[in-house]
Design a protein that fits this description.
The complex is a heterodimer. By secondary structure, chain A is mainly alpha-helical. Among the domains of chain A are: 4-93, Methane Monooxygenase Hydroxylase, Chain G, domain 1 (Up-down Bundle), CATH 1.20.58.1030; 147-193, Ribosomal Protein L9, domain 1 (3-Layer(aba) Sandwich), CATH 3.40.5. In chain A, 56% of the residues lie in helices and 11% in strands. Chain A has six helices and five strands. Chain A has helices at 4-15, 26-53, 59-94, 100-103, 108-126, 179-188, and strands at residues 147-152, 157-160, 166-169, 174-178, 191-193. In chain A, α1 packs parallel to α3. The longest helix of chain A is centred in the middle third of the chain and has 36 residues, at 59-94. Chain A is elongated. The N and C termini of chain A lie far apart (58 Å). The model of chain A has no long low-confidence stretch (mean pLDDT 88). Chain B has two domains: 23-164, Up-down Bundle (Methane Monooxygenase Hydroxylase, Chain G, domain 1), CATH 1.20.58; 167-224, Ribosomal Protein L9, domain 1. In chain B, 55% of the residues lie in helices and 11% in strands. Chain B has helices at 3-15, 25-41, 50-69, 75-104, 106-114, 126-146, 160-163, 210-219; strands at residues 172-177, 181-186, 196-200, 205-209, 222-224. A three-stranded antiparallel beta sheet of chain B has the order 4-1-5. Chain B is flat and about 70 Å long. The model of chain B is unreliable at 1-20 (pLDDT under 50). The chains are: A mainly alpha, B mainly alpha. The A-B interface holds A 29, 33, 36-37, 40, 69-70, 73-74, 76-77, 80-81, 84, 88, 107, 109-110, 112-113, 116-117, 120-121, 123-124, 127-131, 134-136, 138-143, 146, 163, 178-180 and B 53-54, 56-58, 61, 72-73, 78, 81-82, 85-86, 88-89, 91-93, 95-96, 99, 103, 127-128, 130-131, 134-135, 138-139, 142-143, 145-148, 150-152, 155, 158, 163. Chain A: Residues 56-128 form the GINS subunit domain. Chain A: It holds the Pfam family Sld5. Chain A: Keywords: Chromosome, DNA replication, Nucleus.
Chain lengths: 196, 225
């Protein structure tokens, strides 16, 4: 049946939980595009035939193929756009540098889109307020406590906090640090918030 | 308000000489919070409040500067820090709400901006407008390169206005009435209902379809909660 491959693309995204990004289905996309090409050519032929030989009986199949073409287009665009939305969410979750295992699942064009999105977002953030701007990807949660207990998950070297003291972030060491200083490092996976 | 803000009071008033109504820092933060809540709970993008954003950014800069001058180890520093973080959270959250709606409804937002009549206030700040246009262009270029240009000739374009859904203005919102409103027309949702009229008393709280109160949100007569 027509459009099955296109639906499969949609189902593939639907199956993957929670905004994760599966590998880019280059093959699937190509098959849908090939089906579209075939349908279009058949329609071109039938349309000329219908006009030339007055074959009105061909019109229902022409209409059917046209509907399939529209459906395929819609499914493909939905598949591609949904992936873009998942990639966009990654910028907000992980920061500007994506983990390698995620990048591996992105096509070259998606990587390009991401690069452009990052740039637009950075421009926007820099323009806020007229001085240095504001990083709106920080402060994702309302501030609760001033200082938090954190454990260091990997060696990160020296870390300076506001009053000048320098902390050595060694793997497995625990520290009581100002929350606002730790946010970025927590999101990057260097520190872990220890809740007692 | 904390000490850090009250020290700044005089500075802000002098800086805002262009503003007709000079705001105290407390009023400024209250305005920010109102804009934040309205934007958070409204299904559609509201008018931009860049004057408020700019003033709050200035305020934060003043507060940070004051914080540097506080003696190290002084207990007050912690409270000032918390105040700064809270305000920065509200501001970031406000801007994030707007960005999310801009991205979600990008063709509609750009269309509305394009069709503004002379004298009507802008929906987007200039920076948001640039961001929205870049988002549109980036996405369109991507879709064309990866799929659309490989499709049959009559299918190489996608009407973004039709492809991207519009915000649902009939979603229900909670609101508190700030200025008394009379004779608000509630249109029926189904054919069996009839339309009726309500008066909104000052201070009362309601749950209604956004569409009905949209103009009241813009004018500030109601506050979304």
């Amino acid at each position: 049946m027509f459009c099955e491959k296109a639906i499969e693309l949609i189902r593939e995204l639907h199956r993957v939980s929670d905004g994760q990004l599966p590998a880019f289905n280059e093959d699937g996309l190509r098959q849908v595009l090939q089906e579209m090409e075939a349908l279009y050519e058949q329609n071109q032929a039938d349309v000329s035939e219908a006009k030339a030989a007055g074959r009105g009986d061909l019109i229902p199949s022409i209409k059917l193929r046209h509907c399939c073409l529209l459906r395929n287009q819609r499914c493909v665009v939905a598949y591609l756009y949904d992936r873009l939305l998942r990639i966009r969410a990654l910028r907000w979750e992980y920061g500007s540098v994506l983990p390698a295992n995620v990048r591996f699942h992105m096509s070259a064009e998606e990587v390009q889109w991401f690069g452009q999105y990052k740039k637009s977002l950075a421009s926007f953030m820099r323009s806020i307020g007229g001085q240095e701007g504001l990083d709106v990807t920080q402060d994702m949660k309302p501030p609760k406590s001033l200082y938090i207990q954190v454990r260091c998950l990997k060696d990160h070297g020296e870390f300076e906090i506001d009053d000048g003291t320098v902390i050595l972030l060694k793997k497995n060491s625990q520290h009581f640090l100002p929350r606002w200083k730790c946010e970025q490092l927590i999101r990057q996976g260097v520190l872990e918030h220890v809740m007692s | 308000m904390s000490d850090a803000l009250s020290e700044d009071g005089s500075d802000i008033n002098q800086d805002d000489s262009q503003e007709e109504d000079v705001m105290t820092p407390a009023e400024l933060i209250a305005k920010l919070e109102q804009a934040w809540l309205n934007e958070k709970f409204s299904p559609e993008l509201l008018e931009n409040r860049s004057e408020v954003v700019e003033c709050v950014m200035e305020q934060l800069t003043h507060m940070e500067a004051n914080l540097q001058r506080v003696k190290k180890g002084d207990a007050k520093a912690g409270f000032h820090r918390m105040e700064i973080d809270r305000i920065r959270f509200v501001l970031s959250s406000y801007l994030r709400s707007r960005l999310q709606k801009i991205e979600k409804y990008f063709p509609h937002v750009l269309e509305r901006e394009k069709s503004l009549v002379e004298g009507q206030p802008s929906l987007l700040s200039p920076e948001e407008f640039a961001f929205a246009k870049e988002y549109y262009a980036n996405t369109e270029t991507y879709l064309k390169a990866v799929a659309l240009k490989r499709m049959p000739p009559n299918l190489q374009a996608v009407d973004m206005l039709k492809a991207v859904p519009e915000p649902c203005l009939d979603s229900f919102v909670f609101l508190r009435v700030k200025e008394r409103q009379e004779n608000i027309l509630i249109e029926p949702e189904t054919d069996e209902q009839r339309d009726f009229v309500v008066d909104l008393e000052e201070g009362s709280q309601h749950l209604m379809r956004y569409r009905i109160v949209a103009p009241l949100v813009s004018s500030g007569a109601v506050q979304l909660i």
